[in-house]
Design goal:
Keywords: Membrane, Transmembrane, Transmembrane helix
Distance between the termini: 36 Å
Organism: Brachybacterium aquaticum
Strand content: 25-35%
Oligomer: single chain
Protein name: Exopolysaccharide biosynthesis protein
Number of helices: 6
Largest sheet: 9 strands, antiparallel
Pfam families: NAGPA
Structural class: alpha+beta
Low-confidence stretches: 1-42
Mean pLDDT: 86
Order of helices and strands: EHHEHEEEEEEHEEEEEHEEEEHEEEE
Length: about 325
């Protein structure tokens, strides 16, 4: 039995919330914790020290994203952000943006799948923005997605591609190049409203920027192309490095679907919670996006990272029991 509602259900349980610490306080606490682990890992041998360096130690390459955007002339102060927005329980409208929120459950018992979809239409492609944890770019720099969203007054946000877990891929965010290491199929957002899957290895960041690319995401695979689910996506590997978890099987998922120019769907499928939502396979993800009217669909970082935030609230039920800190978000500015 399929059930669909216009109002996304809230989690039935949630951890208690106290006063939110400052962004500076969160950053100091996390870094102090990681710093304290150096002595522990150092005492366990070289392999542990290597693991700390690879997966935990922050490697800041750009210390101020705000300054980088200001220098490039793409900061939020010059973006086409509306000031006349109105929020309801089912969406958001402004002079630049329309968001329609829905939640859907299909199946029964252990085969139940629950997802949250935000259909987004904007008049200006730059209303769809990206933001990084702690306003920095580099590896292993993380922050809860809701905190990143709050720092940028996001109306709607989802987790991004977790670029900070790897050192490959083309990363152009808000019109600024941060990484140019082609490795896989990426997703490109153009300033004229087009959103297309492309082969990173056949181009470069400078060329993409010259062609009008505003954002890129580097994860994948594409789960919908020309309205059809591609063959072989169950065999795709995004990362092959140690510590990577398979993206196959039924998992929590985050994805972007394209209906048309400046018209897209942000999708989160909850998972790993029998009776509520088992998650989706990659082909199922493509089929869900197709059912929502999309002709193109692209998989983002999933599992415990999958989350959607609307009007300052987490509307999905992350499989970790709460948000997982990650390196970036994609958000609607207003």
């Amino acid at each position: 039995m399929d059930t669909t509602s216009d109002t996304p259900p809230r989690p039935t349980t949630a951890p208690p919330h106290g006063p939110a610490p400052s962004r500076h306080g969160r950053r100091l606490s996390r870094r102090a914790l990681l710093g304290g682990g150096v002595a522990v890992l150092a005492g366990t041998g070289g392999s542990a020290a290597w693991a700390y360096d690879r997966f935990l130690r922050e490697k800041v390459q750009v210390s101020s994203i705000s300054a980088a955007e200001q220098a490039a002339g793409t900061s939020e102060s010059v973006a086409a952000v509306a000031t006349d927005g109105s929020v309801t329980s089912t969406g958001y409208t402004s002079s630049t943006t329309t968001i329609t929120m829905t939640s859907t459950s299909t199946g029964t018992g252990s085969d139940t799948i629950t997802w949250y979809a935000a259909e987004v239409e904007v008049t200006d492609a730059t209303v769809l923005r990206s933001a990084f944890a702690d306003d920095e770019f580099g590896q292993n720099i993380t922050e809860e997605p809701s905190a990143i969203a709050a720092a940028h007054d996001a109306v709607l946000a989802i987790n991004g591609d977790y670029y900070g877990f790897r050192d490959t891929g083309i990363e152009i965010r808000n019109g600024v190049i941060y990484r140019d290491e082609p490795a896989r199929d990426g997703l490109a957002f153009y300033d004229d409203g087009r959103i297309e899957v492309y082969d990173e290895t056949a181009t470069g960041a400078e060329q993409l920027l010259a062609e009008g690319v505003w954002q890129t995401l580097s994860f994948g695979p594409a789960v919908l192309l020309d309205g059809a689910v591609p063959d072989g996506i169950e065999d795709v590997e995004v990362d092959t490095n140690i510590g990577n978890h398979s993206i196959q099987g039924s998992q929590p998922r985050t994805a972007i679907g394209v209906i048309g120019d400046n018209h897209l769907v942000l999708l989160v499928v909850d998972g790993r919670d029998e009776g509520y939502s088992r998650g989706a396979t990659l082909p199922e993800l493509g089929e869900i996006l197709s059912g929502l009217g999309c002709t193109t669909g692209y998989n983002l970082d999933g599992g415990g990272s999958s989350v959607m935030i609307f009007d300052g609230e987490v509307v999905t039920q992350p499989s970790n029991g709460g948000e997982r800190a990650t390196s970036d978000i994609l958000y609607v500015a207003g």
